[in-house]
Structures are given as structure tokens and as C-alpha cells.
Design goal:
This protein has about 270 residues and is an alpha/beta fold. The protein folds into two domains: about 170 residues, Rossmann fold (3-Layer(aba) Sandwich); about 80 residues, Pantoate-beta-alanine ligase, C-terminal domain (Pantoate--beta-alanine Ligase, Chain: A,domain 2), CATH 3.30.1300. About 35% of the residues lie in helices and about 20% in strands. The strands form two sheets. A six-stranded parallel beta sheet has the order 1-4-3-2-5-6, sandwiched between helices. The chain is globular and about 55 Å long.
Length: about 270
């Protein structure tokens, strides 16, 4: 596995191997969900690259960038074990050199939900993803379905900018009790960790009720979460691609809740 930390080394490493590349873009603190991205990348291309970059521009002013978990040595070991061919470890100065003034704004699915709760988040995320796609030039890029809105924003950006890459959504990887894997789960207290799987249970129960035509299902599901002790940022039934009102196409039930200091995101298909 080749590890590179500057653009000339990245370009040389990419050119050294024939065939297409697939990219798994991460912010580190890797778990089995990230490994699933690498596994899917292997299925799609002969060469697999992963990036590790904690992107400062997607953190709002009130969010603690320094608290985001970091484990470079552990991450590299996991990626090597997963068969990753190349790891791109850029610095902040490489991604945002002095005088950098260009950002990517994506409309459509970025409005509302995470876009409303975290102003500027999708602007920063879309900008760094566009840079990573340009730097690596993959034929395929893997993104987890756990961050459903992010996945749709990336797909919208790639389509609108005519970028020559296929964005692949990889199903959410869950703990045995149903909790969606996340780098932030490590900050849950034992009591919070015991309660956290209830979010997935309510999502699946509500999705089933919506599939049966229950118009009160979303309100009932949100009420159950509040009664259990979750603070609910949103719990919504949306169109899967646009995140607008559900239409004739595939729909999604999306949620963001808080337990203590930890914010949990999850989603499930409807119907």
C-alpha cells in the first residue's frame, strides 16, 4: 500500500498503475462502514484509493473541529488489511493553499435538514469532494448511505458539473443491535449507547407504517423518540433523490437526533 502526502507523489502513484481507480473518501477514524467502501471499490475497479482528510470547511463555527476523532496509524492498518492500494493524506495547506477563494455551492438536495442545521456544511463538503475527485480522477467514488443527504448532494454536484465519475452508494453498516456505525459513537456514554439503537428501531417501524399508508406514522415515530429521551433535530419522510416532498419515486425516512453530546444520523428506505 502506497501512502502519499503531496500532489506530485499522488500523481506519480496514480500513473504507476494501469487501469481505472475507485475512491473511498473518508475523514478517518475508520470503522467497518469505511471498510465496506473499500470492499465495494474493489468490486468496481482494479485499483483502490482512499483519502483521509478532516475537512475544516464543513464544520460550522459552533462545532468543535478538534474533537473529531483521529487515529492515523489505526486507519492505515485497517486500509492495508482491506487491500487498499493507495492512501491520500493531504494537509490542510495542500487542500486550501494560501489565496484559495473558490468554493462549490450545490442547490437542490442541500436545502433543509443538515443544510439548515449546519449552515455552510454542504458548501465545505462539496468543495473538498470536488477537489478529491479532481486530484484522484477515479472512475468510481464510494459514499455511505448513512449520510443520505450528503450522498444526494454529491450526486447532484457530479451530474451538474458533468464530472466523469460514477457515485456509488454503499448500504449503511450497523452494529449487531442495529445502531448505524459512526466515528462519533465512541463518545456515547454506556447509558446513551444502550438507548441509541432505538433510533433504528423507530425508523424501521415508521417506514413500515408509511408503506401501509399510515399518515400519522411520522408524528408517532418522532413522539416515540422524544418520549425515550432523544432530542430530535428532524424526523422526515422525503423523496429519496431531491429530499423534497415524497413523490412517485423511491422515498426515504431520514433522522437526526441527539443523545447527550452526540448527534446521530440514520435513514431507511420507505416502501
Amino acid at each position: 500500500m502506497i501512502v502519499v502526502q503531496d500532489l506530485p507523489a499522488l500523481r506519480a502513484a496514480l500513473a504507476s498503475r494501469p487501469g481505472a481507480w475507485a475512491l473511498a473518501a473518508t475523514m478517518g477514524a475508520l470503522h467497518a462502514g469505511h471498510v465496506a467502501l473499500v470492499t465495494e471499490a474493489h468490486r468496481r475497479a482494479p485499483n483502490v484509493a482512499a483519502s483521509i482528510f478532516v475537512n475544516p470547511t464543513q464544520f460550522a463555527a459552533h462545532e468543535d473541529l478538534t474533537r473529531y476523532p483521529r487515529d492515523e496509524a489505526g486507519d492505515l492498518a485497517k486500509l492495508e488489511q482491506a487491500g487498499c492500494d493507495l492512501v491520500w493524506l493531504p494537509s490542510v495547506a495542500t487542500m486550501y493553499p494560501p489565496g484559495d477563494r473558490t468554493f462549490v455551492e450545490v442547490g437542490g438536495p442541500s436545502a433543509g435538514y443538515e443544510g439548515a442545521m449546519r449552515p455552510g456544511h454542504f458548501r465545505g463538503m462539496a468543495t473538498v469532494v470536488a477537489k478529491l475527485l479532481h486530484q484522484v480522477g477515479p472512475a468510481f467514488a464510494m459514499f455511505g448511505e448513512k449520510d443520505w443527504q450528503q450522498l444526494q448532494v454529491v450526486r447532484r454536484m457530479v451530474a451538474d458539473l458533468h464530472l466523469p465519475v460514477e457515485i456509488a452508494g454503499v448500504p449503511t453498516v450497523r452494529e449487531l443491535d442495529g445502531l448505524a456505525m459512526s466515528s462519533r459513537n465512541r463518545f456515547l456514554t454506556p447509558a446513551e449507547r444502550a438507548l441509541a439503537p432505538y433510533l433504528a428501531q423507530i425508523l424501521w417501524r415508521t417506514a413500515g407504517a408509511l408503506g401501509e399508508g399510515r399518515t400519522d406514522a411520522v408524528a408517532e415515530g418522532e413522539g416515540a423518540l422524544l418520549a425515550a429521551g432523544f432530542a430530535v433535530d428532524y424526523f422526515a419522510h422525503v423523496d429519496g433523490a431531491s429530499l423534497g416532498a415524497p413523490g412517485p419515486g423511491p422515498a426515504r425516512l431520514i433522522a437526526a437526533v441527539r443523545l447527550g453530546s452526540v448527534r446521530l444520523l440514520d435513514n431507511v428506505p420507505v416502501g
